[in-house]
């Protein structure tokens, strides 16, 4: 198994739990769609490394952000990203 499999599995579980807690309606259906996308990506990642699924992953994240009411917010930084500007300001002062 690869790390991608584990990450997509975690995203799928989180999205599914979030959808289960939502009331019936369009937003719940869209959240379930995001969970299905993550689940399909998880199945693809189980067969081997594949970088072509990153666009699908980003599309699912964008869908989830739009459901939360923050469509223009950039994706959260990963652990490999540079330090945040707020931290840099704190260290300088």
Automatic annotation (TrEMBL):
Ranges for region Disordered: 65-93
Lineage: superkingdom: Bacteria
Protein name in the entry: Transposase
């Amino acid at each position: 198994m690869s790390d991608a499999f584990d990450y997509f599995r975690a995203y799928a579980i989180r999205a599914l739990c979030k959808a289960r807690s939502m009331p019936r309606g369009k937003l719940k259906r869209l959240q379930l769609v995001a969970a299905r996308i993550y689940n399909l990506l998880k199945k693809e990642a189980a067969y081997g490394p594949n970088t072509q699924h990153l666009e699908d992953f980003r599309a699912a994240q964008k869908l989830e952000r739009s459901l939360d009411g923050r469509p223009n917010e950039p994706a959260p930084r990963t652990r490999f990203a540079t330090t945040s500007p707020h931290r840099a300001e704190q260290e300088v002062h």
